Amino acid sequence: MARIKEETLQNMGRAQKAEDDDLEVDVTKSKKLAKHHHHEEEREEDGNDRKDTIKLLIALGAVLLIIAIFVILFFVLKQPKRVMTIDEMHQANMDGKLDPAEGYIYNGYSFINFGGVWYSQVKKNNTIYDVTFNFDPKNVENITVDGKLTSDFVKNKHIYVTFDPEGHYLQYVGVANYGLSRSLAWAFSYNMTAACTKNITKACETAGVVTCDDVDKAVVYFKEAEETKVILGDNCVTVQGAGPEIVRAKDRLLLRWYGMMD
Fold first, then answer.
1. Of the spans 18-22, 54-58, 151-155, 218-222, which averages the highest pLDDT?
2. Boundary-marking domain end, from 50, 79, 108
3. Residue range(s) defining the domain that contains residue 51
4. Which of the four pLDDT bands, split at 50, 70 and 90, describes residue 206?
5. Quick one: which H or E segment has residue 16?
């Protein structure tokens, strides 16, 4: 009986030991699995952190790139452009590098727009002169020039510029008179004298009265009229128009005298 009890106890001990071994194995496996899962979670977290870091760096790079572009554009646009001289513009015009609004070639002459004024160059006695116009050739082509001057007009170095002191467009007459007188005095060495067609003001009394009827004088008459045209009449040139058309007719006359237009 005692022997049976002893065997029973031994069997129970072995069974308990086996259970303990199995439990130890299960615990070890659980620990290994837990450790493996922990490592997997750490790797996943590291991967997520790395992805977030990359996204952040890309976003920061894009922001910095945009800022850099704006800074570059700001400084580029703020840089003042060097303005070409009149001679440089003429050369660029001859090379075909100007926009038509800035300049073009007309009958072999270079015309450029500089500061709202049209410039060209004429050669007289081996000297190049810069001449100016309020209107370019293409804008005065439709103005007719009728008649013919006597040879004495061309030879005469003294020209009288006259106008009606009671006119309605005296400001335009003044602009036309200045442009014509300056050009003829500078490029052709003419002596220019202002006059009036009527003696009704102190200024006209001082300047004197001159009309196209004074056949012994070379006269340019700025006349206010509805039709814009230039009339060559022996000793007198009539430049006529209404308002700014008088200035346009003046440029048509100058372009003819310079030989740039017929």
1. 218-222
2. 79
3. 1-79
4. confident
5. helix 2-78
Closest-CA residue to 237 (of 249, 223, 220): 220
Query: What one-character DSSP code corresponds to residue 221?
Result: E
Domain identity same for 91 and 75 = no
Strand 236-241 versus strand 218-224 pairing type: parallel
Residues 140-194: pLDDT tens digits? 999 999 998 888 787 778 999 999 999 999 999 999 999 999 888 887 888 999 9
Question: Are 94 and 71 part of one and the same domain?
Answer: no
**Cα separation of 99 and 172, whole Å?**
29
Q: Are residues 95 and 192 in the same domain?
A: yes
What's the rounded Cα separation, in Å, for the pair 72 and 42?
44
Residue 132 and residue 199: Cα distance in Å, rounded?
32
pTM summary value: 0.67
Instruction: Give the end of a domain, one of 30, 46, 79.
Output: 79
Residue 59 in any domain: the answer is: yes
Copy the structure tokens of residue 175: 């602009």
Q: What's the pLDDT at 188? A: 80
Residue 251 near residue 133 (C-beta atoms within 8 A): yes
Find, among 208, 106, 103, 224, the residue nearest to 158 by Cα: 208
Indicate whether 143 and 250 sit together in one domain: yes
> 135 and 75 share a domain?
no
